[in-house]
Structure formats: C-alpha cells, structure tokens
Amino acid sequence: MTWDARPLNNPYHTLTAWEVIFTFVSKLVYWSSVGGFFHFFIDWFQKREKQNQLEKENAGSKLALLKSQINPHFLFNTLHNIDALIAENQQKASEALLKLSDIMRYMVYDSQPAQVPLKREVEHIKNYVELEKLRIANPDFSTFHVTGSLEGTDIAPMLFIPFVENAFKHSVNTKQDNGIVIELDAQPDRIQFNCQNQYEERATEKDATSGIGLDTLKKRLQYIYPNRHTLNLIKAKGTFTAQLEIQL
C-alpha cells in the first residue's frame, strides 16, 4: 500500500487504497440510509392503507351486522307468539314483550359504542333465547350456561349472538333435549364461548343467507381482536359447533 503525500486538493492527487475504502463505505452507508428511509416510508404507507381498509370494512360489517340482527322473521314470529300468549298467561306475555323491547333497544342504541359491559351482552343473549323458546314446546331444547364473573369486563358488542341465531335457525328436531347448548365462561384474561346445535345439511345448502352473518363476524373479530382471538367452526355428523375464545 503506497501513501501519496500530495495534498488532497491537488487535481493530480491519486487516491490511496484507504481513501478508496473510506469513500466506498461512506457512500454505502449513505445509500443504505436513504434506502432504509424509503423502505420505512413505503412500509408505513402500506400499513396505513391496510388499516384504512380494515376500518372501512369494519364500518360496513357493523352496518351489515345491525341489519342482520333486526330480523323481520324473528320479530314477526315473536309478536305472533306474544299475541297467542296473552289469552293464556298475560303476565308471561307482558314479560316477553319487555324482553323484546329490551332486545330492540340494545340492538339499535346500546350496542353502538365500541365496548359494552359483558353482563349486558349476556342479558341480550338470554332475552333472545327466552323469546325463541316461546315457539318451542320442549323447554329443555336449548340451554345457556354462564360461568366465571361478568363484572368489570367490557367487550365489543354483538359478537356471540350470530352463533345463537344460526343455531336456532338451522336446528332440527326441537323435541330433543339439549338440541342447542350455549356456554360462556368469563375469566379475567379471556372469554370462552361455545355454541352447539344439530342441523340438516340439505336445509343449510338451500339457505342463500347461510354463512353471511359468520363472514361478517370474522371480519369484525379480525379488526377488533387481531391476534387475540381463536375461532373454530366444526361440522361433524350433523352437529355444528362454534368455539370462540377472546383474549382480554
């Protein structure tokens, strides 16, 4: 390696090996920094676009969910059942009417915030199950068990009711006991929800709306609880099981 003693401002100065290495490393660091900046900017922009898209899908899915919850068939059937019940038991008919009113209030008004008390969500499910029982002769056809503590826990609204609606919609043989089994376990760090029902494959295939509510629910879960939920939908021997776990 030869050291040239001529000053660097000399136009005839010959770069030494160390100067070549220094120049190369300097340019490498410079362009690496520029490339890193652009990579960071592009990555941030892509993530922001994805977030905006998820927000749009969430807004659309919440609207679709609200529309799907105000089911005219459920409303008409419930009103018809209450009307028939008035002649038999006015007290029970009055209680059913209050449950229906509470369901409508919850769906239209109370479920609008991003988070609601878990206790209120469970009350909504209980009201729905009790009103569905009005049209079923067997009181033991459906069960709803709650374990753990509901106090002090908030959750995104209307996450569990689509499974319950589908269970009643597609269940067969309402004369059997435990045709629909709904379970919710609330712990400080998680919520485990299970819903199981018997169904007919042919009836499900003919239903054009089958699965739409669940697709909407999956989008909401992905947006609200990314990497913090597990959803398993299992079909086996005429039994449909939905298992949803949410990490709090």
Protein architecture, described:
There is one protein chain. The protein is an alpha+beta fold. It has a single domain, classed as 2-Layer Sandwich (Heat Shock Protein 90). The chain contains 7 helices and 7 strands, in the order αααβαββαββααββ. A 5-stranded mixed sheet has the order 2-4-5-7-6, covered by helices on one side. The chain has a two-stranded antiparallel ribbon with strand order 1-3. A hairpin with a 2-residue loop joins β4 (180-187) and β5 (190-198). α3 packs across α4 (118-132). The model is unreliable at 1-8 (pLDDT under 50).
Describe the structure concisely for a colleague.
By secondary structure, the chain is α+β, with helices and mostly antiparallel strands.
- How many beta-strand segments? 7
Q: Which segments are poorly predicted (pLDDT under 50) over 5 or more consecutive residues?
A: 1-8
- How would you spell out the order of helices and strands? HHHEHEEHEEHHEE
Our Rg estimate from Cα atoms comes to 30 Å
Number of spatially distinct domains: 1
Largest sheet, spatial ordering of strands: 2-4-5-7-6
Structural class: alpha+beta
Distance between the termini: 65 Å
- Here the CATH topology equals Heat Shock Protein 90
The largest β sheet comes out as: 5 strands, mixed
Proportion of residues in β-strands: 15-25%
- The global form is elongated
Can you give the helix content as a percent range?
40-55%
